[in-house]
Specification:
18% helix, 2 helices, two-stranded antiparallel ribbon
């Protein structure tokens, strides 16, 4: 399951829908769709905070998308979650046995019985 990234604003527990990045050389703040990966020098914002965000005095803010909407889980996310639940709920005796390694005679839990040398 993919964890949901939370809004970077203090005390906000909402899910992020946009990413704010500062371009210091141009005195510009860029607010765009949620980045694929969390970056240390960018800020993930929820819909409410992305709408209310303003640029510092003397800076320009560029909004790449006019409105950010949290779409919720996609069908792929739900399928992946269902597959993970099925896998976790599968009885251990029906799961494929682990391959026996060279010199291993048997197993009991996390312990292995090894063939002696000689």
């Amino acid at each position: 399951m993919i964890p949901v990234r939370q809004c970077s604003r203090t005390a906000c527990a909402r899910a992020s829908v946009a990413t704010l990045t500062y371009v210091y050389s141009d005195s510009t703040a860029v607010l765009g769709p949620l980045a694929v990966n969390a970056e240390p020098h960018s800020y993930d914002l929820c819909g409410l905070h992305s709408e209310r965000t303003t640029a510092p005095r003397g800076w320009e803010i560029v909004r790449l998308t006019p409105a950010f909407v949290d779409l919720g889980p996609t069908p792929d996310d739900i399928s992946a979650l269902a597959d993970a639940v099925r896998e976790a709920g599968r009885p251990k005796h029906l799961a494929e046995p682990e391959p026996v390694q060279n010199g291993e005679i048997g197993r009991r839990g996390h312990l292995r019985v090894l063939r002696g040398e000689g």
